[in-house]
Write a structure and sequence with these properties.
- With about 260 residues, the protein is of the alpha+beta class.
- It has a single domain, classed as Creatinase/methionine aminopeptidase superfamily (Creatine Amidinohydrolase, Alpha-Beta Complex), CATH 3.90.230.10.
- About 30% of the residues lie in helices and about 25% in strands.
- It has four helices and 14 strands.
- It has a five-stranded antiparallel sheet. Strands 1, 2, 4 and 5 form a four-stranded antiparallel sheet that branches. A three-stranded antiparallel sheet has the order 3-11-10, with no helix packed on it.
- α1 packs antiparallel against α2.
- The longest helix is centred in the N-terminal third of the chain and has 24 residues.
- The protein binds magnesium ion (2 copies).
- The site of one magnesium ion has 7 residues, from β4 and β5.
């Protein structure tokens, strides 16, 4: 698809609906977060997220999403070296894992998309640092989402912070515009050059999603054709918010 031809600016009324979609998505993620513990399966967490979305009159945005085969679940459940797009199922979480949950909700025709990664009990110092750096890189990226800045300012801020901390960003997976479709333009990579790319303007809504890998920027896709892992098996993390560019401060839609 052509990302740059698929950019849609939203009215303030549309952004209000996107906040509602984003809020339902946040409720679903919060329900997942509350129930994360050693022994619970990713499939059980998936059902909890779906229930919250449907109870709030939304629809899971990931379910049946086109890909190698239609995506079969409400959340992406990615453990340890799994970066994104992990399939929920019978696997149980255990102490020492780090677990990424990505979820999307459609409400009144608009999508909210966000993700977080969390430690299950005690984890290594490296894992803890990875979580902190990835979450902070999202905050740093969002701070650059101001009218007049370039996409490259956002990308560069994320890359610079992550690499300064000794970690890596993938090249194959990026943030993206979000709205009536889950994936709209522009593409917002987690690497790039300041001052380059599209100029951000009010009404642009972007799902910003730093993905960070400990050992390498390279990724691979598992035989299930969805799950993306680090190529070297090292730990990975992922945080995401859908955010609107405004006349002033960036507006986080998924909280
Ligand atoms: Mg997402
Ligand atoms: Mg996304």
């Amino acid at each position: 698809m052509s990302w740059e031809r698929n950019i849609v600016l939203k009215s303030s009324a549309e952004i209000e609906i996107m906040q509602q979609a984003g809020h339902i998505n946040a409720l679903a993620l919060e329900e997942v977060r509350k129930n994360i513990r050693p022994g619970i399966t990713t499939g059980e967490l998936d059902s909890l997220a779906e229930q919250v979305i449907r109870d709030n009159h939304g629809q899971p945005a990931f379910l049946d999403y086109p890909g190698p085969y239609p995506y079969p679940a409400t959340i992406n459940a990615s453990i340890n070296e799994e970066l994104v797009h992990g399939l929920p199922g019978k696997r149980a979480l255990k102490e020492g894992d780090i677990f990424s949950v990505d979820c999307g909700t459609i409400f009144e025709g608009f999508v909210g998309d966000s993700a977080f990664t969390v430690a299950i009990g005690d984890v290594s110092d490296e894992a803890q640092k990875l979580l902190e750096v990835t979450e902070k890189s999202l905050e740093i990226g969002i701070a650059q989402m101001r009218s007049g800045n370039h996409v490259g300012d956002v990308s560069s801020a994320i890359q610079t912070f992550v690499e300064k901390n000794g970690f890596h960003v993938p090249r194959e997976y990026s943030g993206h515009g979000v709205g009536r479709k889950m994936h709209e333009g522009p593409q917002v990579p987690n690497y790039g050059l300041a001052g380059r790319g599209l100029v951000l303007s009010p009404g642009l809504t972007i799902a910003l999603e730093p993905m960070v890998l400990v050992g390498t920027a390279r990724t691979r896709v598992l035989e299930d054709q969805w799950t993306v892992t680090s190529a070297d098996g090292s730990l990975t993390a992922h945080f995401e918010h859908s955010v609107a560019v405004t006349d002033g401060d960036p507006l986080i839609l998924t909280q």
